[in-house]
Amino acid sequence: MSYPSPSASDPSLATSAFMVPSVEATSDDEIASLPSESADTSDLDDFSDYSDAEEEWRESVEQLELLLTMVIVPFVGKYLGRKCAYWSWTRFMEWKYPVEVEVKNQAAYKGTGVVAALASL
After folding, report:
1. What span, in angstroms and rounded, lies between the C-alpha atoms of 110 and 116?
2. Phi, psi of 8 (to 5 degrees)
3. Domain locations in the chain as residue ranges
4. 33 Cβ partners below 8 Å, 6+ apart?
5. What's the rounded Cα separation, in Å, for the pair 115 and 6?
């Protein structure tokens, strides 16, 4: 079966950058000259098992990539970003406003914390 040339129907298509090359019909001699092999069914089964395993492997790798890019990386980035922000803000505030806190009575300090916690209930 031969297809008509696109340039015959429309001359502007002949110069198009997206032209698909024309498909030439193969002759019977070319088909007859191809080697014919009888394939064993066991060879086909092995190939089928291999391709199924390879397809499953690719699917599992794709799922791991999705898990990594959609779940793990954002959570790790969020965690590390917050840690970095808290650390840098603490360092800045200690540099900008150097304040030392001295607790003279530990029992009163802890008691105040307990009373404040109970008052919030």
Report:
1. 10
2. -70, -35
3. 40-101
4. none
5. 89
14 Cβ neighbours under 8 A, 6+ residues apart: 6, 7
What is the Cα–Cα distance from 80 to 12, expressed in whole angstroms? 59
Query: Is the distance from CB of 6 to CB of 13 less than 8 angstroms?
Result: yes
Question: Which DSSP symbol is given to 36?
Answer: -
Q: For residues 25 and 1, give the distance between their C-alpha atoms in angstroms, rounded to a whole number.
A: 6
37 Rama class: left (phi>0) / alpha (psi -120 to 50) / beta = beta
Per-residue confidence of the chain (121 residues) as pLDDT tens digits?
555 555 555 555 555 555 555 555 555 666 666 555 555 555 556 667 778 889 999 999 999 999 999 999 999 999 999 999 999 999 999 999 988 878 888 888 888 888 888 887 7
Q: Give residue 10's identity as a one-letter amino acid code.
A: D
Q: Can you list the alpha helix ranges (DSSP code H) found in 1-121?
A: 6-9, 28-32, 41-67, 73-96, 106-119
Q: Is the pTM of this model over 0.85?
A: no
Residue 19 to residue 7: CA distance in whole angstroms: 10
